[in-house]
Amino acid sequence: MRALMVGWTGFMAAMLLAQGGWHSLGGWELIERLDGVQVVKVFRPDNLISSPYPRWYSSDRGDFFPADQLLYYRWATQGQYYAYDSEGRIALDDVQIYPYLDPNGQGRFRISRVEIMVYFPRPGIYTIQGFWTGADNEFPPYPSFAPPATFLRANQGPHTLNVPQAGVWRLGTLTDPNNEVFTVQAGQLGADFGNRFVFYLGILVSSPAAWVCGPLPGDPNFDYFIQYEPDNQEDVYQYYGLEGGVPATFGLRVWGAPAPVTRLQGIINIEGYTGSYAGRQATIRIRQGSTINTYTATLSDSGAYSIEVREQGAAEVLAQMPPGLARKVNRTLSGTTTQNFTLINGDVNGDNTVDDADLLQVLFAFGQSGTNRAEDVNGDRTVDDADLLIVLFNFGQTGDRF
After folding, report:
1. How far apart are CA 263 and CA 338, in angstroms?
2. Tens digits of per-residue pLDDT, 207-259?
3. Alpha carbons within 13 A on the beta-carbon side of 244
4. Which residues share a beta bridge with 281?
5. HSE value, Cβ hemisphere, 13 Å, CA-based, for 117
6. Mind listing the domains of the chain with CATH numbers?
7. How far is CA 92 from CA 134, 184, 240, 393, in A?
8. Which residue, among 48, 86, 357, 336, has the nearest Cα to 209 in the 3D structure?
9. Tens digits of residue pLDDT in 94-132
10. Beta bridge partners of 51
């Protein structure tokens, strides 16, 4: 799975309940102290056992519409639990979402709110920074881009928390103006795990604050600590487990909804082409950040196309269909998006350049006739002077590329 990344406008509006009054916090909310939850031990980084983890790759994400569905629930209201003091950028837990919550099966979710359980051993001033990571379709899910992969807008932080009392607290992100904290392209666990969608989520809270973990209700413990090693030139990550086999299931809730499918439609025409486009196929490539996805569009007689794509938000869209040169546009994808393309003619061999190779191919086929010949660039079913002139007129032209 990939994850997709786009810039956002900032928003600052949140309140913190402390010592009987409300104090400015930013994009996180200190909601309530959970009096029935007790922490019996706090684990530190030296309680981790590490193993090599696969390399991560870049990706991007897009903007979606409001989300309000509870996607994931792991919570405790009473009992004895552990806590883990991260003291570094470690993605602490995986979020596993059941497939019935995503009828489109694309594993792309817009997250509107996250709540977490954090242990503060003493009152005072703390800082908090949130982040998440996507994953592809392997188990354990292989992360799909490098940090910092942070909560968006005001939720990103770091923020200052004025904690009035020691204990386990429920923290939450406040809904931003777009009702979205972040979006994620999740990986998918296999049939042995119910084909659940998975992504990693974490926070960085200043020590001695610690995430609450243990045998919490919810899915089985498939959890990993993930840490980025920025000094390693190969961008290799490490995964960790708690020493002694202590359950590392963390207390969190995630609200959101599956991303709506984007329908990209329009007309693709090639300059000087007069034949039918019925059944011809165009290649559509969409790039967000360093992630490029490829789609195939089958055209109607007039060149009309309509495809479903997974991307949302700002993107580069490139269409190519020989003998037309590729053309690229910048678009914001959302819902049904109409984008027409007019392609320069003359790329007979489909290498995205009109050059000697195309000219020679037309010359060798000169005088021949038939349907769907590559050299018949004007679509009149005959390779003749008209096709030769088109190639000569556009000679030296090159199509767009990523």
Report:
1. 8
2. 899 999 998 887 666 677 777 665 555 556 677 888 888 888 899 999 888 87
3. 8
4. 298
5. 28
6. 15-258 (no CATH), 262-393 (2.60.40.4130)
7. 13, 16, 9, 60
8. 86
9. 888 999 998 878 788 888 888 999 999 999 999 888 777
10. 239
